[in-house]
Amino acid sequence: MKKLLIFPLVAAILFLSACMGGTNSESTTEAPSVTGPGESQSVTETATEATMEPIFKKEDMPRLDGSTANIPMAMLMLQRAAGMTQEEAELAVNFTTTPNAYYNLYNGATDLLLVYEADESMKAMIAESGVELEYHPIGRDALVFIANESNPVSNLTTKQLQDIYQGKITNWKDVGGKDAKIEAYQRPDTSGSQALMAKLVMKGLTFMDAPLEKKPAEMGGLVDALAEYNNNGNALGYSVYYYAENMYRQPGLKFISVDGVAPANETIASDEYPHTNEFYAVIRKNEPQGGSVRKMLQWILSDEGKQAVKDAGYVGV
Question: What is the average pLDDT value for the chain, to the nearest integer?
């Protein structure tokens, strides 16, 4: 199987360019949005401009890390909080994925995370280290399920998903589809999306064993695998909504509704979609008052920071 992962910073830059403009209070900018390898479309975004002066000199910014899906938000925050250009923000954002970001924070290798929830093993490791972390919800996302457009199944219940990922349901015909084996992809145990799957869907149930080729290390690798698997529509996988919709959309794939509700910003904001979860700004609890880390955290939690979350296309809290 072809393993292709194109890091989506170009898409993020193009996406964020719609959120930055001149001196007007609002601007409408038309720009190409890269939605997947070899595919682009023209979109129009309306963004509220930042009206305050940057609060940081670029050299005084705390070190940021976090989840892949939060890269566009981090870039916009750096542009607004530190007056960086898009190119400078791209170079400054070096997110190492959810588990690595938590590891870097409690080991002192970074200062502030924009991150999804850690898995239980990472939470236990942090607790054993004696390092106390401070969590502040800044937005909401959802765990979404992805299949090939050729698959006639458009909705699955949470119970059906549980049975599929326990290995109890193995054929699409048992959930209203064709007589074909369900090729159910997972993520590595410590990944952010696997942590959400365990928490929101499985709820203590045991995952069936999956071979390594069905547990791609990167989110983009999972999306690629779903798009490429034999081109016969048998595959099923999951990701977080923002990443799959805005950063690495692949032609030929679709979202599966869950319990009759399709994932969208509106259904995530209203909690109508059943598998939503917050993401966070996280710092070490012993960060001193008045320091650059708490100053950045305070900005993220301010009206300007909340607006940056929304302007980057995320669901705010």
Answer: 85
